[in-house]
Structures are given as C-alpha cells and as structure tokens.
Amino acid sequence: MRDITTQLRARIRRGTTRILVGLIVFTLGGIIAIPTAAQADQPDTEQFSALVFSKTAGFRHSSIPAGIDAIRKLGDDEGFTVDTTEDASAFTDENLARYDVVVWLSTTGDVLDQAQQAAFERYIRSGGGYAGVHAASDTEYAWPWYGELVGAYFKNHPAQQNATVKVEDPAHPSTAGFAPTWSRFDEWYNYRENPRGKVHVLASLDESTYSGGDMGPEHPITWCQGYDGGRSWYTGMGHTAESFSDPKFLRHLLGGIRTAAGVENADCAATLTDSFEKVTLDDNTANPMELAVADDGQVVYIDRNGDVKVIAADGGTSTAGHLNVYTGQEFGLLGIALDPDYTTNGHLYLYYSPQGDKAVDRVSRFTLKGGTLDMSSEKVVLTVDTQRDQCCHAGGALEFDHKGNLYIATGDNTNPFASSGYAPIDERPGRSAWDAQRTSANTDSLNGKILRIRPKPDGRYAVPKGNLFDDGDDRTRPEIYAMGFRNPFRIGLDEETGGLFVADYGPDAGSPSPDRGPDGRVEWNIVRKPGFYGWPYCVGANTAYRDYDFATDTPGPEFDCSAPTNNSPNNTGLTKLPSAEPATMWQGKSSTGVPEIGGSGAPMTSGSYRYDPDLDSGRKWPAYFDGKAIWADWNNSRLFTVQLDRTRRAYTDVNRILAELNLTRPHALQFGPDGALYMIEWGSGFGGNNADSGIYRIDYVQGNRAPTAHATADRTSGPAPLTVAFDGSESKDRDGQKLTYAWDVDGDGTTDSTDVAPTHTYETVGDYTARLTVTDPDGRTGVSSIAITVGNTAPEVELVLPTDGGFFEFGDTIRYEVEVNDPEDGTIDCQNVVVQPGLGHDDHPHGYEQYRGCSGSFVLPGDAGHIGENVFGVVTATYTDGGAADVSPLTGEDAVVLHTKRTEAEFFDQHGRLKGSTSGGTAGVQIETTSDVGGGGKNVGYIEPGDWFGWDVMNLSRLDRITLRAASPSSGATWEVRTGDPDTGPTVATIQVSGTGGWQTYQNFSAQPVGDSTTVTGPLYFVQVSGGSNVNWIDFEGQGASEPAPGT
Predict the structure, then answer these.
(1) Does the bond joining 721 to the residue before it have cis omega, within 30 degrees of 0?
(2) Which residues contact residue 1008 at a Cβ distance below 8 angstroms, ignoring those fewer than 6 apart?
(3) Closest alpha carbon to 1039 in 868, 803, 866
(4) Which regions in the chain score pLDDT beneath 70?
(5) Out of 418, 520, 593, 714, which could bridge 507 as a Cys pair, Cβ 3.0 to 4.6 Å?
(6) What is the DSSP string of 999-1040?
(7) Coil, strand, or helix at residue 110?
(8) Which residues contact 231 (CB under 8 A, 6 or more apart)?
(9) CATH dotted code for 712-790
(10) End-to-end CA separation in angstroms for the chain
(11) Which element (helix H / strand E) includes 69?
(12) How far apart are CA 532 and CA 541, in angstroms?
C-alpha cells in the first residue's frame, strides 16, 4: 500500500509546474470531475490544484453554480486547476492528496460520513488547505474538529442588506489593497461564538450600518488560522450570485484560496496572543513614568521622583542621573524625548518640576554619555509657569517629529474637585486655581496645550511656522500648536503624516446633568492642524457644558462650541476662540463614542507603527499593524488597535488585542526601531512604588520564546560588609525548557555564579547592579537586574496615623504621625518627611498639597461630583536619607488607604460563597441598577444564603455603628460582618434585615461592631447567612480616622 502521508505531504508545495498532455477525465464515485481549461491553455503555469466541494444536506444556496463558475474562471485566469464535486466519496486519502486546497462552497448540513471525515482530518494534518465560503459555517455541527477548522458555526442571519465591512488586515492577500471600509450587499451571518482571539480576523462588520447584527462591535466576517497542521481561511460573504461577478469579492476570494493552498504567504497569527512575548527589561522599578528607545536598542526611562535610568541593549539597568524634583500634586519628572541625533550627540530632553519656591515646569536638554547624565550640561529650553497650591494635571509628554520639531503636552493645572465632576469654571475671586479658563482656554497661557517648538543647538528654541498664533499679539503665545486640553497625558507621532495622537484625560462626573453638562469623558484625538479642542467648554463630540455660576449655583446657557468665548476674569488672552474641534474618539462614564472600548477613564496612546519589510529583526510586529496606533486603557489594563482611514484624519476600526497577555496598567507605549512595542506598567498600587511595576518589551515571535528572568534579593541595602541572598527561581520559560543561570552580582561583566540562588558578600561601599541572565537550550536569554546599595540602608517609614483602612468623610481633618528609622542618619530631621494626601478614584489617585513633618494634620477635601462613585482617600509618607560617601541616597515610603464612611456596596474588592454552602444559583453577588429613592446608582443583588462580598483592607477602629441600606420583599435576611476570612473569621456584628415589601424598597438596618478584631487592619466581609436581600450601600458611623472638628 502506498504511503498516503507521504503522498499528502507531497501535494503541499509552492510554484508547482505540471506538464499536462491531453484532457484527463476521471470518475469519483460516478461523478465526473473535469479539470478546467487552464491545463490546456496554460500547461506551463499551473501553480496548484483546488477541489471545490458544494454538497448540501440542508438549505441549498442558489448562488452555488455562480460560485463554481467564478472559481473555475479564476483558475483559468490565474493558472490553477479547479475540480468540482458534490460527491462525498471524493474524500479519500488518495484523492485528497491530489489537491492543495479544498474549497467548501456554501455547504450545509452533515455532508461527510465518519470515514470521509477521518480522511479530511488526515489531509489537513499533513499540511492541506481549507477555504470556507459563506454557509461552510452552517455545516457539520456534530463534528467538533470541523467546527474548530472553520472557526465558528453559523447561528442566524437578518434579511439581505447593505452593510459596511471593516478591513482589519491590510497585508493578507485576501484583503490587501482594499480601502479600510467596504460597503456591499450580502446576507450577514451571526455566529454562535465569536472566534476572535482563536483565529486571526481579517475583516469585520460594522453593526451600526445594518440591522440584525447581534455580535457587538467586533463582529468578524472573514478570518484565517493555522489549524492542526494545515491552513484554514473562511469568509462569511458570498450568499448572492452577484457576489461572484463582483471584482472586489473575487479578488478577496482568490487571495483566500491561494493562501489556503499555501502558494502565497499569509500571516494568520498576527493577532493571536501566543504569537507575542512579553519580555521583562526591568522589573525592579518604583515610579516609572516615560521611556524612549534609542537606535542602538538602549532604553532610557525616567522615574517620577527624579531618576533617569538606562537599560543597556544587552540587558541590565543603571541609574544615569537624578534630578531634584518637586513631587507634590501630580508634578515630578514627567517627560522624556531623545534628540533626533541622540546616537551622535547624546542629547535628551526632560520635562520636570524643579524643587524650590518657584512654581514652574521646565523643558531642559541634557547630555547622556557613557551611561551617565551630565548634570552640568543642562540647557533650560522652555519654562512653563504653574501653580502648586492646588492639584491637578501637569501633562509633560514630549515627542519629536521628523522635521526636528518638539511637541510638549501640558495639563490645565486646575483643581477639578469643586466642580461636581463637570467643567471647572469657577470665576469667583480667589478661585482662579479652580478655573480652567485661566489655562486651557487662555491663549496667553502655556497650560492645557500642545506646544510646538524647534530646539536649536545652543539650547534655545525657534517657533516653527504654522502654529496656532503668530508672534505678534501680546495676548497669545506663539509656542501654542493646539489648545483646549485638560490633561493630555500621552502623545504619539503618526509616522505617516507627522500628525499627533493625543490621549486626554477627562473629568469624573458619573452621569450627565441638565444643569451642568455631559458625564465625564476622555478623548483620543488626531491632531493634524492647529486648533482649539474644547476644554473646558465642550467635550467629546462637541457636547457643551453650561456656563455655571458658582457664586449663585445657577446654570447658564450652554457654551457655543462653534464660537467659544472666554469671558473669565482669570483670562489674560483673547476673548474669541477658534471653533472647537470634536474628539476623534471619546469614552464617558455613562456613555461612549467607541462601543469597541466602552467606558474608560484613562486613555494611553502609542504612535503609529511603521512596518519595514527590509528590517532584520526577530521582534518586529507583523504587517497587519502597519499604520495602526495602540490605544491602552490604564484603568482596566487593555490594549486596542486604532486603524485610520486613508486620509488619516479619522479612524475606521478599533479592536482589542492581546487580551490574554498579563498587563498591569499600561502607562507608556512606544514602538522601537526594532519594530517591537516597549511599554511601562505602572503596577497595581495607587500612588506608585509598586512591586509589580516594570519596563517591558512585547515581541512578535513565532516559535521558541525567550525565557523570562526574575531576580529577587533578601536585602538591597545595608552597611558593609553586606551579605545578600539572591534568588532566580521565579524565572520561567514559557516553552517549558530547562534554564541555565548566570549571575554578575558586582556589575563587572563577568559571571560570579551559575547557581539558581547564590549568596554574595559585598565588602566595598558603593552602588552596584546585580544582573541575572537566564538562557534556554536554544540560546535565547532573559535578563533581570537589582540595584544593591552598600554603605547605606534604606530608611523604614511607617504611617502610624491615620490607620490603614480607616474611615472618613471628605472635608474631615485627618491627623498623621510618621515614624522613620534610618541607621545611618540616626536622628531624623522631620522636615525631610513628606506627607501627601490624595483623592483616590477607581484605580488612580489625585495628589493634593504636600506637608512636611513627622506629625500634623490636614483636611482631605472631596468633590460632590464623586458622590456615589468609587472614591477613597490615599495618604503617602516618604523620607529620603542623606546617603553617604560614594553611595546614593535612598527613599522609604509607606501608604494607607482610607474609605469613605458611606461605601457603595457594588465597589467590593471580592465576593464569593461560603465553603460547603448548599445554596443554588451563581455563587457570590451580582451588580444591578437600583431604583432606591435614596439613589446610589447600583446595588448588589441575587444573594443566596452563604454568599458574601468584602474589601481587602478595612479597619473598624473608633466606629459606633454599621448600617446596611438593604431591601427584602418579605422574609428578611441575617448578615454577619466578619474580619479576616469569610468562612472562619470572627463575627464582629450581626445585622438583621426585616422585610421591606420589595427588592427595591430600601430601609436602613444597623448593628454595633464589637470585638478585638475591630481594631485590626485586614479584610472585612459581609456574609448573608440566611434569607434574601439586596444591599445598596453601607454606612460606617463614628469618628473613624477623622479628628473632631475644632471646638467640639
């Protein structure tokens, strides 16, 4: 018997040329399969053979004959052989081995028996190709292997109609050369499951352009994949006979058939998470803010507290220099850009807030050579006046274009916390820091802007032509390129046009107000020309705020977005402003302009990716991403692609990518010269100094992935001699290969140990970088570094007060006490202890004014606009010691989180069900909209006996009562408040809920917390031990973390 596997593999080839003599006629189970005339007309150019299979066991499409004729003609025109059949007996090993691809043309129902299915599986596993057209997804529902091969099964469809197809992949031969959108008439399928993430989607449907789509904003219609050793391509288009005379569709179909046949290259892994690798560059970071990548692979990144650090191209991190920066509110070292000639001149530009009494930010040029930042080389290029009395919004991002122009993003430098989450336009005397008309809408202010200058060799700058204002009016600043921004935290360059992508943070109103304006909205803008982008008058798609009078609490008329006027007494610039530009994309707290993203409060952006086919890089992202930008959601750790139209002034598609990649708040994104994406992750904590922050590179890999090195040390500072126990056991290889370890613990470039966990004693005082390199059997490496300080011990800082997890109300006075222990400094100078309170909102804090001293008090203000939102207080304390000879200073920090005394139940940290519970339904609680007359927005419900919800860190000290806002139709419920563990923790309060007459009829039910564990900081759980109820909010009553008001 012939070796069928060998025969099958022999069929999978490229550029096969066959000499055919005469007309070959053969029978397949009584059905005549006649090759096309291509073999006679083009005997020397046949490239591959295709079998078109069109058997139906269900609905039969009348377009099948037109489809067969069209594919035959494609074979004639393109030089490949086409055989057609509806006889399933063609599915034998011997016969399938004759074809490079089998086209399933609108097949339906169960069309193959088990033996035929087995033969087709062997054919694919031996490298065969599958091309499915339209109803091929309405086939073989009882054959799971086929369902995986096609990618998704048909569910239903609306009536035939016009719709817009979004072309996602500009590189795949079946979609290459197509415009980003394609309008056509067809029958549009909904699928039982969305295959996105398992297959590479080539095109999708815009459900807003037709009726009956039910898959949401990312509705795939064409995709491909490598499957079980073979190739699969599928299109849901092709229902109508007219499709097969449409040149565009035929080009689409031809590209699919050719790639499925394997005669034309196609990347069908370009969006699959397993094709990418997250490489750790430095995971021993504190407050990483921004990064820049040099042509030689060196990564320079900045820490908000003032450090400039360098990651060498071959791995390993060192501190190049330190700037003394003011870090109150949201200031610090915020932005970095490498000079276009950095490789030769070593110049880099930093945006920072210098220490001192003068409230300014600076753009300065420095020289970095040999891994050291020359502090004496500073040239102050530009100074931006600010105020430091009130929070917030400093901006600070920097970006060079290809003409040598430097773009500078600045925030509105305005306190947002007394505007109820709407536009801060308080014109009362003494309230200028609460009025963004003073900055963003002021043509004479550099705040709330995108500035454009051209640095000169002598450290000064010129203003390029084409900015928003000429240098001829003392009421305008010529450096302004675009204005009307709130906090443009990230900017990126469109490599194709030189335009900017600007990610602008928005206010926090949870819902629109008829008296104030829209809900809080963030923006992502394509800035291709000078203009006014709306803030604080208009936001999103030019939705206007009202001219609110803060003195009388009276709403005025809506602002005119087409002709905004700045009449604020705090305005020193022009009164008449340019018409407001609507946002390219926006997301709100209760609405969104981009359904693919939904709501979001923290946008980030990269520049656009430019694919270079000639670049020799094993990391570069594929051609699918050419021209796309990466949009990141800081709050929810998500990445999306943004695809632009051909004008590059609007977007056509947004898609989630790398959903399975573990991210922790992507903070900065930049494509490097090697084609990889470089990224900062801020980490999970609110105020910084997060153990899970880091600098990473995301590579596109197909095959063996590099290992991830992870080095830890039991101590990183102390007096000499200093013995350190290192550990590399948490290093991993995603391909499961064995790793070897090489430690350079003293930074001299030689290997000191090959153990997994060595110990080393440092005898000499100094700053060291310990470096671990792990290597897999294929020679791929990963590197992790740890800074070791010998001769100085990091100070230990403890916030004794306020109590971590305590309770307060906004406006309360909070007392603080800080204890610092530093062996080298001995007696602590309390003036060097810095305490900073802040408002936490969702996943991020807004810092307030800094206080100095080991003890004292402050008022923690809030904002009526955050009522009902997920808000909390944050207090941090830091102390930087004096260092020592040849040893850097070190900083210690502690932080606590304070909860509002009214805590919305839906903002729990965790939920679940008691072990051993016999309750039915879904374990844990669910969130639903409440109709409580008391408000609250959402409640937790669907709570069975044994279900619980809770918070990770709470402390009930100095509380007198816990009150549940609860509802129960008749039976009531019993709740126990437990500390430490929901199953075994002590009960500190039992709250009886009586029947209230309805699931949304709420009353208050209370109990007093008692027991020793009430004063212990730790998890707190609310456990429903019997009955059934909904919970809207919880009031924690008593003094808590607050101090009594003066005179009480």
Answers:
(1) yes
(2) 960, 961, 962, 989
(3) 803
(4) 1-46, 686, 703-704, 842-845, 863-868, 1045-1048
(5) 520
(6) TT--EEEEE---SGGGGS-EEEEEEEEEE--EEEEEEEEE-T
(7) coil
(8) 101, 127, 128, 129, 130, 224, 225, 259, 260, 261, 262, 266, 268
(9) 2.60.40.10
(10) 100
(11) helix 64-78
(12) 13
Look at residue 5 and give its three-state secondary structure: helix
Buried b (16+ CB within 10 A) or exposed e, 745-759: bbbeeeebbeebebe
CB distance 464 to 452 below 8 Å: yes
Whole-number Å distance between alpha carbons of 354 and 839: 24
- Amino acid (one-letter) located at 501: F
pLDDT at 11: 42
Distance CA 192, CA 17 (A): 42
User: Class for domain 4-152+224-261, per CATH?
Assistant: alpha beta
CATH architecture of the region 902-1043? Sandwich (2.60)
Name the strand (E) or helix (H) holding 131.
strand 129-133
Could you give the strand order of the β-sheet that contains 603-608, starting from the edge strand earlier in sequence?
Answer: 603-608, 629-633, 638-644, 651-657
Q: What are phi and psi of 303, to 5 degrees?
A: -105, 135
Residue 5: per-residue pLDDT: 38
For the chain, how many helices (H) and strands (E)?
8, 69
Q: Which two tokens stand for residue 201?
A: 């989607």
Q: Can you tell me the distance from the alpha carbon of 7 to that of 90, in angstroms, rounded to the nearest whole number? A: 16
Residue reference for tokens 């600076």? 362
Question: d(Cα 603, Cα 583) in Å, to the nearest integer?
Answer: 13
**Interacting residues of 1037 by C-beta distance below 8 A, sequence separation 6+:** 901, 959, 960, 961, 962, 963, 1006
With tokens 């022999």, the residue in question is 10
State the virtual CA torsion across 94, 96, 99, 105 in degrees, nearest 10: 160
Residue 729 burial (CB count, 10 A):
11
Domain covering 290-655+664-686 assigned CATH 3.40.50.2000 in the classification: no
CATH architecture of 796-900: Sandwich (2.60)
Query: CB 1045: neighbour CB atoms within 10 A?
Result: 9
* 58 three-class SS: coil
Q: Order of strands, edge to edge, in the sheet holding 740-744?
A: 717-718, 781-790, 766-775, 740-744
**Residue 865 DSSP symbol:** G
Question: Rounded distance, CA 909 to CA 1019, Å?
Answer: 10
Task: Please determine whether the domains at 796-900 and 902-1043 fall in the same fold group of CATH.
Answer: no
**pLDDT tens per residue across span 948-975:** 999 999 999 999 999 999 999 988 999 9
Structure tokens at 186: 């067809």
DSSP, res 150: H
The residue among 59, 71, 237 whose CA lies nearest residue 138 is 59
- Degrees to nearest 5, angle at CA 754 with 750 and 756: 130
Beta partners for residue 604, in sequence order = 632
How many other C-beta atoms are found inside a 10 Å radius of the C-beta of residue 217?
21
What single DSSP character describes residue 969?
S
Structure tokens at 1005: 């039910």
Gap between the Cα atoms of 727 and 712, Å rounded: 5
- Gap between the Cα atoms of 55 and 83, Å rounded: 14
Quick one: pLDDT at residue 865? 53
pLDDT score, position 867: 57
Tokens 């810095």 sit at which residue? 834
Q: What is residue 9's predicted lDDT score, i.e. its pLDDT?
A: 39
633 and 489 Cβ atoms separated by less than 8 Å: no
Sequence ranges of the domains in the chain? 4-152+224-261, 290-655+664-686, 712-790, 796-900, 902-1043
Write the burial class of residue 931 (CB in 10 Å: 0-12 exposed, 13-18 middle, 19+ buried). middle
Residues 6+ apart with CB under 8 A from 430: none
Q: Which has the closest alpha carbon to 232: 132, 126, 110?
A: 132
CA dist., res. 384 & res. 334, Å (int):
13
Cβ pair 278, 696 in contact under 8 A: yes
